Amino acid sequence: MIWPRISWVLTPQAKRKVAIILGLIFLIVLAVGSDWFWRFIYPIYHEAEIRQAAETHQIDPLLVAAIIRVESKFRTENVSKVGAVGLMQLMPETAEWIAKESEIPYRGIEDLSDPETNIRMGSWYMAYLLKQFDGNQAAAIAAYNAGQGRVSRWMKEGVWDGTLAASEKIPVGETRHYIQRVSFSYTKYQQLYPDF
Asked: Rounded to two decimals, what is the model's pTM?
């Protein structure tokens, strides 16, 4: 054992420091292996709004949570450099289109900072994309980021087959990383919140 061999070389102060460091390493290993640590890293806020919107639009609430985590990290006032707003980072033009196509009330861009409205609109849009891509979740996630037209074109031209496994073939780096991050978060949420 190493500790008895080196303990005679160390000063009492150094022994305390080593013991503290080893104790911290032990606690970190315990924490990383526990659900509470991972639930801290992968939280779900606005649970009622997510459940309601997901139920209304018949999509998995954990998928909605994964999109929110990647898009805004659950920050309601988040505005991207291109102008996407709120939890699910909706572009104002997309929100206007969603309002026309759905029965979700929308008065303007300020509504996108409201968690309930943003989650309802984003969930409706994700459900719409899932229908457009015949339930292909990977393609719908990619389209949420890059747009339906681009993803349809990539698939039609054989650039990408629409699977997560082949996501490296997506020609736009942002979308390639987006689908991987959302899919990873979705899998983590499924592990951590099986009854959500």
From this structure: 0.84
